[in-house]
Structure formats: structure tokens, C-alpha cells
Design goal:
This protein is mainly β. It contains four helices and 41 strands. The strands form twelve sheets. Strands 1, 4, 5, 6, 7, 8, 9, 10, 11 and 12 form a ten-stranded antiparallel β-sheet that branches. The chain has a four-stranded mixed β-sheet with strand order 14-21-20-17, with no helix packed on it.
Length: 517
């Protein structure tokens, strides 16, 4: 490196003329006590430690803490110039001028004989082969080496990649000529398609094409690899997750394959019990009594699948209790195959429950907030509880957020607060705590026609645990409470049955309803 003809009189004057990229690298507290020592590079330089305690140099009115580690030897810069650094901290440039060379605060400081700063260069990297700084005028990398030459070329292997989304691949960069040195930096032309880390590991993000570039430091020579990412299927949504059929009935399930740009959207259907409910291209036929799980799996090898529980029954799965509204109540919970079965658990406004893999029921995992009661993002009637003051004044679940509608189909809904109140109105029904097929719960019987439904004491899910299963049951309505962090629920136990509210993030049972047809 040749001495600059322009000698700056102080640290701030030097920094003022640096390009932004270099200034950003040089940012730091000049009174920082954390001086940096170059170590573990004895094959490159002779690092002499402990010759003097740490000292602070006054450079143009600013304090620069150094560690008095002296790097000794003859150094060669990328442009072919060189200087020799002596053990007393002085260095002889080809011009014969003597300069002092200090390492401190992650910077390389060069002072002239009058103790005025000539250059302050950030130490970007030190390896066993070279020391890398940045030119304070151009911002370009500057390398110093004891021997050898800087790389003048670079190649990438392989030069093309075809990948599936979500996978990784290793690219290798080779510097030329053989034996040359220099760092390699990696970049992607479109990180929404693929990213690359500092070691050349490419991660396929989503379908598309992009260019991965490797740049050889110093020479700035570049090599590229063309990457094509095939978008795999990430999710399949079935038109129903649970179906009740009578003998000889059928249902046609439809599959929505996501994302929209998936390269292969074909699916493969299968049944866990062909003798009960075979499936052909999504059509499920009821051959015999019992249950079967219908699986729809992506054909692209991603392993993504969705399932539907098919129950073949001998009678309707709803009961007419003779209620004034004409509401028909389902005979079992979502996810259950009998009235006594606990079934699935859902947070309020979520349609994927515990059986779908949601194992944690907390604010941090709740779909409609940003982690706290004051950050609601949907169904919020009070700005004090909305994210950044958000409100939408929705007080009932939209169909796409109704667990009954999504899981059982368009004929079903989660009950409203008023339907719960009608169900337990003593003018229309009686209730009793009982045990049915070994399961505790509340039996609700119509005063009009004697029909009844059984609500098992399925408990509720809070965090990762199931609480009070067997002693209490909690059933979500589709209605928001006055305070929007809560929603209405039906509560049953051995002492009473009533409607009250609870935190929306907790996992509770859902007993669907439908209207008279």
C-alpha cells in the first residue's frame, strides 16, 4: 500500500471524506474500552503482545485506544506496493517516509512522524493468509499478504441448480490462479426465491428463478449460478374434515392445494377402510357402518396431506329438541365419533384444532393477536385491545373462522350465545349431571318431545395441558363477549350449567348446530 499524498490532520476529517459504506464499518465509540487484539495468526504475522500496557492515543483531539500489538514483517498490498513494519511500531514505505502502525478498536491506524493520522482503516478480516481492510476513499477492499498473490478469477460449481422449495444445496467457489488468496462473498438476486449464506449454502424459499453470485475480494471478479426452484405443495385444505353419512349415501370431497404456484397440484386419495368408505377422486361412498379416515396427499413428494374422518351411522347426527328457534343440535362434538367422545379442541376463531397439530393454547400461539391481550388483530370492538388501536367491530365469527362450518360443511355453525341460552332455558329443557357409557357430562332433555343430547365433561386446553377433563365441560359459541379478549362459552359441571366468558386463546369443545331444513 502506498502512502497517500494527502495527509489528513485528524480523525474526524478523515471520517468525513469516507464513503458511506466505509463510515458504517468505522462506526463505534472512540472511548470504547474493548480494544481488539489480532491473535492466532502466527503463520501470517509475528504478533508481539505485552510489550506495553494499553494506552490511549490523542488523534486530532479524539481518543483512540490501542493495544500496542505490533504486526512485524513486510506486507504486500493488492496493487503490488509494500511496506515493512518494524518492531518499534514504525513502518518504512518505499518513499522512505516512516509511519507508525497501530491496531486497536478493530481498526488499523497509521500515523506519520508527527503523530498525525494518515489512514484509519477498518480491520474487516484476518486469516492465516491475509489481512483485509477497506480503502477509506473508495470503500473498496484492500488486502495485505506476506506472500502469494490475490485471486484474479473465480468459478462456481455447479453453475446451475434445480431445487425443491425448502431444501438446501452447497455451492463451491474456487479462486484462480491456484494458490491465490482472497475472501468470497455470496449474494442472491432474489431472496424470495433462494437465499445463500456466507459459506455458499443455498436455501430454496419459493418457486421461481434467481442468480447466486460469488465475488472474489480484492479483484472483485464474479461467478454466477442459475437457480431454479420448484415450488412444492405446503398445504392441502379439504372441503370437510369430518363427515357423517348413512348407508348408501356419498359425499364428494374437494381439495384446495396451496400455494397457488405449486408446480404439481395433483393429489392422491386413499381410505383407511375401503370396506366401510372407499374413495375415488374425492368421492366417498358409505358401504358399511363404522369409521374411515380419508387421506388426500400431494403427488409431488412433499409429503403434505390432509384427512377427513368419515362416520357411517344409522341415524341423523342432529337432534330436534323442539326449541322455538328451530335449532337442531349435533349429537357429538367436532372430532368425536360418539356422543361421549371428547372430540377436538379449538381456540376461538381458529378452525385447526388439537387434532390438527395445534398443541399449545396460549396468547403467543393465538391466530388473532400479536402475543398479548392488547394486540388483537380481528374481532375487536375496543381500540384499547387492538393492535396499534385496531378495531373492526365484528361480534360474530366469519364463516371462514367458524370451526363447525369449516370442519363439518356449510350446513353447520358454531352456536350463538342466544342459542346456548335457549338450550339451557328451563322453560324448554331440563338438565342433569350423569354418567353415560362411563363418561361424565350433562344430559339436556327437551320438555316438548323428550329428545336429548349429551355434553361430555371434556375439560379445556390451556398451554399444553388438558385441564379438568371428566369434571367440567366448556363449549365455544360464535359470539364475542363485551370485552373483546373474551368470547361467550357454555360451562357444564356437576353443580350447574351456565353461559359465561373466557379467554379466546384457550382450547374448548365445539358442539355444532344447524337449522330445520
Amino acid at each position: 500500500m502506498k502512502a497517500k499524498s494527502l495527509l489528513l490532520t485528524g480523525l474526524f476529517a478523515i471520517m468525513a471524506c469516507m464513503p458511506l459504506s466505509a463510515q458504517e464499518i468505522l462506526k463505534g465509540d472512540m472511548n470504547d474500552d474493548n480494544a481488539v487484539t489480532i491473535a492466532d495468526v502466527t503463520s501470517l504475522v509475528n504478533v508481539i503482545l505485552g510489550k506495553a500496557p494499553q494506552e490511549t492515543i490523542n488523534v486530532g483531539g479524539s481518543l483512540f485506544k490501542v493495544d500496542n500489538s505490533l504486526v512485524v514483517g513486510t506486507w504486500y498490498a493488492t496493487d503490488g506496493s509494500h511496506f515493512s513494519l518494524n518492531e518499534d511500531g514504525t513502518t518504512d514505505f518505499p518513499s522512505g517516509t516512516t509511519y507508525k502502525f497501530y491496531v486497536g478498536q478493530n481498526r488499523l491506524l497509521i500515523l506519520n512522524a508527527s503523530e498525525r493520522a494518515v489512514q484509519i482503516l477498518p480491520i474487516v478480516e484476518v486469516t492465516s493468509s491475509y489481512l483485509l481492510t477497506v480503502d477509506y476513499v473508495t470503500g473498496a477492499p484492500v488486502y495485505y499478504t506476506k506472500s502469494g498473490s490475490l485471486a484474479t478469477g473465480i468459478t462456481i460449481s455447479p453453475s446451475t441448480l434445480e431445487m425443491n422449495s425448502g431444501t438446501t444445496a452447497q455451492l463451491m467457489a474456487t479462486l484462480t490462479p491456484e494458490g491465490s488468496f482472497g475472501s468470497v462473498t455470496w449474494s442472491s438476486s432474489d431472496e424470495s426465491v433462494a437465499t445463500v449464506d456466507g459459506n455458499g449454502v443455498v436455501t430454496a424459499v419459493a418457486g421461481g428463478t434467481c442468480i447466486i453470485t460469488a465475488t472474489a475480494g480484492g479483484s472483485l471478479k464474479k461467478a454466477t449460478c442459475s437457480v431454479t426452484v420448484k415450488q412444492l405443495v405446503t398445504k392441502i385444505v379439504l372441503s370437510q374434515k369430518q363427515v357423517f353419512l348413512k348407508l348408501d349415501e356419498f359425499v364428494r370431497l374437494t381439495a384446495t392445494v396451496l400455494p397457488e404456484n405449486a408446480a404439481n397440484k395433483n393429489v392422491v386419495w386413499s381410505s383407511s377402510n375401503e370396506s366401510i368408505a372407499p374413495v375415488r377422486s374425492g368421492r366417498v361412498d358409505a358401504y358399511d357402518y363404522g369409521t374411515a379416515i380419508i387421506t388426500c396427499e400431494a403427488a409431488d413428494g412433499s409429503g403434505v396431506k390432509a384427512t377427513c374422518l368419515v362416520c357411517i351411522v344409522g341415524e341423523d347426527v342432529y337432534v330436534d329438541l323442539g326449541l322455538p328457534s328451530g335449532t337442531l343440535w349435533a349429537t357429538c362434538n367436532i372430532g368425536a365419533t360418539s356422543p361421549e367422545d371428547y372430540g377436538d379442541y379449538f381456540a376461538w376463531g381458529e378452525t385447526e384444532g388439537y387434532n390438527d397439530g395445534k398443541t399449545i393454547f396460549l396468547l403467543s400461539s393465538y391466530k388473532w393477536c400479536e402475543g398479548s391481550n392488547s394486540t388483537m388483530t380481528k374481532y375487536c370492538t375496543n381500540s384499547s385491545y387492538g393492535y396499534n388501536g385496531f378495531t373492526d367491530n365484528k361480534t360474530e365469527l366469519d364463516l371462514e373462522d367458524d370451526a363447525a362450518y369449516v370442519n363439518w360443511g356449510p350446513a353447520w355453525r358454531m352456536p350463538s350465545e342466544e342459542q346456548f341460552k335457549e338450550l339451557i332455558n328451563s322453560s324448554y329443557t331440563t338438565t342433569e349431571w350423569t354418567t353415560q357409557n362411563g363418561v361424565n357430562g350433562r344430559k339436556i332433555t327437551s320438555k316438548t318431545n323428550g329428545n336429548s343430547i349429551f355434553l361430555p365433561a371434556a375439560g379445556y386446553r390451556n398451554g399444553s395441558s388438558l385441564d379438568i377433563g371428566g369434571s367440567g365441560g366448556y363449549y365455544w359459541s360464535r359470539t364475542l363477549f363485551g370485552n373483546p379478549i373474551y368470547a361467550w362459552r357454555l360451562r357444564v359441571n356437576s353443580s350447574f350449567i351456565d353461559t359465561t366468558s373466557d379467554n379466546r386463546y384457550r382450547g374448548k369443545s365445539v358442539r355444532p348446530v344447524r337449522s330445520l331444513e
